[in-house]
Amino acid sequence: MTELLHNPNSRKNIPRKRSPEPERQVSLESLDDLTSNNKASDNKIKKQNGKTVDQVTFDTTLRMNNHLKNFLKAMVILGSSPTQQEALQHLQRSYFETLSESEQKTMQIQIDTLEHTDVLNKNN
């Protein structure tokens, strides 16, 4: 225990490097142009049978507390949506509509990136 208190390395100064500087600035407009130009060609993944796939859908699990689960159940019971999945999709659309235009673009870029990753992972 005493060696922890009297560590000879504790007095050494660690040299710090300066923060990295970006080589060029990126704007949302440039990302939007990039994604629209590459969407048609890059997002298409060839399967073994020759068909191209740009989106996949599969079931996943989602952990949530009982209060959120009860909220989704109440939406179904009260007739707001036929299933809990559709209730969650309704909440997703409502949230997306509340975002500003730039936030929607940022969110859509992130969603497209995650969707593209799903396609790559499912086809490998």
Characterization of the model:
- This protein is mainly alpha-helical.
- It has five helices and two strands.
- The chain has a two-stranded antiparallel sheet with strand order 1-2.
- α2 packs parallel to α5 and α3 packs across α4.
- The mean pLDDT is 80.
List the helices and strands and how they pair.
Layout: H1 2-5, H2 28-42, E1 45-46, E2 52-53, H3 66-77, H4 84-98, H5 101-123
Antiparallel strand pairs: 1-2
Helix pairs in contact: 2-5, 3-4
Please describe the structure with a list of short key phrases separated by commas or semicolons.
124 residues, mainly alpha
Radius of gyration: 24 Å
- Counting DSSP E segments of at least 2 residues, the number of strands comes to 2
Q: How large a portion of the residues is in β-strands, by DSSP E?
A: under 5%
Order of helices and strands: HHEEHHH
Calculate the terminal CA-CA distance, rounded to whole Å: 51 Å
Structural class: mainly alpha
DSSP helix count? Answer: 5
Helix content: 55-70%
Largest sheet: 2 strands, antiparallel
Q: What's the mean pLDDT score?
A: 80
Give, in spatial order, the strands making up the sheet with the most strands.
1-2
Form type: extended
Assembly level: single chain
Question: Quick recap of the structure?
Answer:
With 124 residues, this protein is mostly helical. It has helices at residues 2-5, 28-42, 66-77, 84-98, 101-123; strands spanning 45-46, 52-53. A two-stranded antiparallel sheet has the order 1-2.
